[in-house]
Design a protein that fits this description.
There is one protein chain. This protein is α/β, with parallel strands linked by helices. The chain has a single domain, classed as Aldolase class I (TIM Barrel), CATH 3.20.20.70. Helix content is 42%, strand content 16%. It has 10 helices and 8 strands. The protein has an 8-stranded parallel barrel, surrounded by 7 helices. β2, α3 and β3 form a beta-alpha-beta unit. The radius of gyration is 16 Å and the shape is globular.
Amino acid sequence: MTPEERRARFAAVHLYLVAPLAPNGRTLLDVATHAIAGGVDALQVRDKTATDDELVAALRILRPLCDLTGTLLILNDRPDLAVAGGADGVHVGQDDLPVAQARQIVGEDRLIGLSTHTDKQIDAATVGDPIHHPDHIGVGPIHATPTKAEAAPIGTDLIGHALRGPLPFVAIGGIDATTIGPVLDAGAPRVAVVRAIADADDPRAAAHLLRGAVDARRR
């Protein structure tokens, strides 16, 4: 897949799932299979406790599913392992490897996402040489979430600022069926979720409900 095709595919994303290797005691492949059937169209593997070998193996297991369904496959935090596992890209935080260094590792073909939490961070993402620019950003955490317990929730106001910027973005943080409405009302074109799908008894049904909400606002 060319970088242009990957960027176009991200622009078309509606529902982005972030999940560990064993969500709610199940395999990620099992959860991802059902979640994708329910409407997830981007998948980020995020597991701070997994070994390098486990992360690469997981990406290689998920790659055929993502190819078959047209789902973007992203790895959190580790550009080197994203390349080794055949992911479509990597997502880094403000305190992780800088975008320019990540770009040197993943090359031009793969996507780089960057977490942002303030208007200044959103603006800084497109300052200077394009090699320092991510392909897209995450905006959040919108609501408090145990996934990022150290980060203060920012609410929905920052979504409007992100909409005025040049980069596509995904809203993230404590988003579920009960909180997604105001996020979409604020203009978020796509949302990322973790527990609302990964921990659901029925990941397909949970994804279908959230995807329906996003689709209704994007029509």
